[in-house]
Automatic annotation (TrEMBL), chain A:
Residues 28-207 form the ABC transmembrane type-1 domain. The chain crosses the membrane at residues 32-53, 60-85, 91-111, 153-174, 186-208. PANTHER family: GLYCINE BETAINE/L-PROLINE TRANSPORT SYSTEM PERMEASE PROTEIN PROW, POSSIBLE OSMOPROTECTANT (GLYCINE BETAINE_CARNITINE_CHOLINE_L-PROLINE) TRANSPORT INTEGRAL MEMBRANE PROTEIN ABC TRANSPORTER PROZ. This is ABC transporter permease subunit. CDD domains: TM_PBP2 (cd06261). The lineage of its organism: Bacteria, Bacillati, Actinomycetota, Actinomycetes, Kitasatosporales. Keywords: Membrane, Transmembrane, Transmembrane helix, Transport. Belongs to the binding-protein-dependent transport system permease family. Gene3D superfamilies: MetI-like. One of its GO terms (biological process) is glycine betaine transport. It holds the Pfam family BPD_transp_1. It comes from Streptomyces boluensis. It is found in: Cell membrane; Membrane.
From TrEMBL, chain B:
The keyword Transport applies. It comes from Streptomyces boluensis. This is ABC transporter permease subunit. SUPFAM superfamilies: MetI-like (SSF161098). One of its GO terms (biological process) is transmembrane transport. Pfam families: BPD_transp_1. The chain crosses the membrane at residues 20-41, 53-73, 79-97, 133-160, 180-201. Residues 19-199 form the ABC transmembrane type-1 domain. Belongs to the binding-protein-dependent transport system permease family. GO terms for cellular component: plasma membrane. It is a multi-pass membrane protein.
Length: 223, 213, 316
């Protein structure tokens, strides 16, 4: 165990490990790119759905159940399935990552919207606000903490799962994990895993910081 | 991409075996996860100083790619079911621990005080008052953890286990969609059945919540 | 504190997990006392044999062929398909997770002894016997052979005037090779191509073992050179050019059973020897085709072949 950690230290700090087309620098950027794009696409799909069902209160049962169904989708199976249907490209990986991220965002957005006090909404309407004003000026700000929780959860899962790109020949930090598996090079596997975890935690802290910075002047949610 | 129905018919016995093996791996992981989370959650609930540490640790474990966990376990437990179950257990912790702590937190202090005032010993209070009242929140965690574990089992196909996940690597290698589609469908089916059973179990375990719902 | 927690946690789980293993050990010790010289007499396959196979079609077929002939000899055989690469399988064999695996002479030798230079089958067999770790042995090699091939498309061969591996060195830094990840560090792979032929690639792409990724990449032109198996029927079907190997980098790759001493009794030896003498390279190639192209089960294909060749009883 101790030996493995020493080797890991050497692996992570070796200058030759960081440079070049298969160096840590490039792999880290690739991983970041896969994760960011997948999360943004997932958010673009899931946020409107979550906001809409939260605002109207309609279709919630269906959406929430579909989401928990989505959580059961096996990522490996989805990647292979889309690969067989569409050929070798990043598409299978992105489809699987988006499918992974959507449920977390939908459920948390909906939960955030559902938690907004009815009286607050009624009061806003009473003041003559239009529906979109109620949605964007009243409900959304109040639901934001939970929406952000959903986004952060989705991002963490996507970063951890983007390793799968390496299974279908692409890059990212998963390269170290899959190559290390094939070569039984545990140092490489551990190095890849540590980098993924560090990236996930760093991105999570970044989002948490952004959240605090953006919304520190706002009153806390009604709950 | 067509489905070869005769393949499915010819392999019904194999598919059943893989499904059962898949389910066994996921359920064992949730069971071990609960055995680990329950005492840890009690500690996190009682000792404020440790709460952040324990929850943070389970969160960090969650960020490690599952395939890496399986590979790193190879020197310890080899190409066995044990490796799969330990790896999956790690991922159930984040949900189980968080929900159990939240469940314990949700028990009104007055209820606990009343039980203590009646002379009930602390361990009995925990077992007969706190845990039962926390059960709905804990069960919500168990449901999420179970569905997650069922979807994750297939990753263990990279170390030669993985239940239905073997259909994915097989279909991939041979450019054969039928096993892959079947594997995805069966995984979803397992998740659905397991979730329904857990809902039923919760119904039986917490009769006092029925009227409220 | 956090470490303590994690360790106790893991320790607890492992304690539960290792109970059956300990029990098995106990049985072994008592039976050893009873028989006295069971160590000298080799192993026993009485309790059945677990066959591990690598993550490609042919190895799985071979595993099921082993199982078919062992079952016919009255040995209970279990196949564990697709466990991974040699780098994963051999430690698992040593560790007792599996007992037997279909191997390839040259590749196995280079895994055990990267500096090995012998290429003739008999010499390799001797070198293997020396290089193998304690507790493992190889049985006589079979007729069938599946070598590593480095192949290019016809167009690439023409454009770069490629006929042998030596020609690749004329385009150092320009060509991309695709192979399974483990080939990057293998002698029969990127390491040997550099040492023996002085070939340096622009890039090594980690793909798979003569599977959909590496063949797809070669077809599409994403890689210039692909590491394939000679028993892959796509080489012929696609008209790919296998580069000649004048310096014998790629050793003979006859199929050879690698087995743990504890299971290598005369019943197993005899059954596998009969199989080795019967199965030809052409037949193995055809079995690969049936699984990869006709989508037949490796298990069925293996059993049918064994039955047709009188090596397994016809199933009722």
């Amino acid at each position: 165990m101790y030996e493995l950690l020493v080797d890991l230290g050497g692996w992570l700090t070796g200058p030759e490990q960081w440079s070049g087309s298969d160096g840590i620098g490039v792999r880290l950027l690739e991983h970041l790119q896969y994760s960011a794009l997948a999360t943004v696409v997932a958010a673009a799909i899931a946020l409107p759905i979550g906001l809409l069902i939260g605002h109207t209160g309609r279709g919630a049962f269906l959406a929430i159940n579909l989401s928990s169904f989505g959580r059961a989708l096996p990522t490996v199976g989805l990647v292979v399935l889309v690969f067989l249907a569409s050929g070798l490209s990043m598409t299978p990986v992105y489809v699987a990552l988006v499918a992974l991220a959507v449920p977390a965002i939908v459920t948390n957005t909906y939960a955030g919207m559902a938690a907004v006090d009815r009286d607050v909404k009624d009061a806003a309407r009473g003041q003559g606000m239009r529906w979109h004003q109620v949605l964007f000026q009243v409900e959304l700000p109040l639901a934001l903490p939970l929406i952000m929780t959903g986004l952060r959860l989705a991002l963490i899962q996507v970063v951890a799962t983007a390793t799968i790109a390496a299974y279908v020949s692409f890059g990212g930090l998963g390269r170290y994990v899959f190559d290390g598996l094939a070569q039984r090079d545990l140092v490489q596997v551990l190095g890849g895993a540590v980098l993924v975890a560090v990236l996930a935690v760093a991105l999570d802290l970044l989002l948490a910081g952004a959240q605090r910075l953006l919304f520190r002047h706002r009153a806390p949610a009604t709950a | 991409m067509t489905i070869d129905w005769t393949w499915i018919a010819d392999h019904s016995a194999d598919l059943t075996a893989l499904s059962l093996s898949h389910l066994q791996a996921a359920l064992s992981a949730v069971l071990f996860g609960l055995l680990i989370s329950l005492p840890l959650a009690v500690v996190a609930h009682r000792v404020r100083a440790l709460r952040g540490l324990l929850l943070g640790l389970s969160n960090v474990l969650f960020t490690i790619p599952s395939i890496a966990v399986f590979v790193l376990l190879l020197p310890v437990s080899g190409l066995t079911r044990t490796t799969t179950v330990i790896g999956l257990t790690v991922y159930t912790l984040v949900v189980l621990l968080r929900n159990t702590v939240e469940g314990l937190d949700s028990v009104p202090v007055k209820t606990k005080e009343a039980a203590t005032a009646m002379g009930t010993r602390p361990l009995r209070v925990l077992l007969t008052v706190e845990l039962p009242l926390a059960l709905p929140v804990i069960m919500a965690g168990v449901r999420i953890a179970t569905v997650m574990a069922i979807s994750l089992v297939s990753v263990a196909t990279y170390i030669g286990d993985g239940g239905l996940g073997q259909l994915f690597t097989d279909g991939f290698q041979r450019n054969y969609p039928t096993p892959v589609i079947t594997g995805v469908a069966l995984t979803l089916l397992l998740a659905l059945i397991a979730d329904a059973l857990l809902v039923a179990l919760q119904h039986v375990l917490t009769p006092w919540t029925r009227k409220r719902a | 504190m956090t470490h303590m927690n994690r360790r106790t946690l893991l320790g607890g789980l492992l304690a539960t997990a290792s109970v059956p293993a300990l029990a098995a050990c106990g049985g072994g010790i008592t039976s050893l006392e009873g028989e006295g010289n069971s160590l000298a007499g080799g192993g026993s396959s009485k309790d059945g044999v677990t066959i591990g196979t690598a993550n490609f079609t042919e190895n799985q077929i071979l595993g099921y062929l082993y199982a078919a002939v062992l079952e016919a000899a009255g040995v209970k055989a279990t196949v564990r398909p697709g466990l991974g690469t040699r780098e994963i399988l051999i430690p698992a064999l040593k560790g007792g997770d599996i007992d037997l695996l279909p191997e390839y002479q040259g590749a196995l030798l280079h895994y055990l002894d990267p500096k090995a230079t012998v290429t003739e089958e008999g010499e390799m067999q001797n070198a293997l016997a020396v290089a193998l770790p304690k507790g493992l042995q190889i049985l006589p090699y079979g007729m069938a052979e599946d070598s590593d091939a480095f192949a290019v498309t016809r167009e690439t061969a023409k454009r770069y005037k490629l006929r042998s591996l030596a020609d690749l060195a004329k385009h150092n830094g320009k060509l991309v090779i695709g192979a399974a990840p483990e080939v990057k560090k293998r002698t029969v792979g990127a390491v040997g191509l550099k040492d023996v032929y002085g070939v340096e690639f622009e890039e090594f792409k980690s793909l798979d073992s003569s599977g959909p990724l590496v063949k797809g990449a070669l077809r599409k032109g994403d890689v210039d050179v692909a590491n394939l198996f000679t028993t892959d029927t796509d080489i012929k079907a696609e008209g790919w050019v296998v580069l000649a190997d004048p310096k014998n980098l790629v050793p003979g790759q006859h199929v050879v059973p690698l087995i743990a001493d504890r299971k290598a009794d005369s019943t197993v030896r005899r059954a596998l020897a009969k199989l080795g003498a019967a199965l030809t390279t052409e037949q193995l190639t055809e079995l690969n085709r049936q699984v990869d192209k006709d989508k037949k089960d490796p298990e069925d294909v293996a059993r049918t072949w064994a039955e047709q060749h009188g090596l397994a009883k016809r199933s009722s």
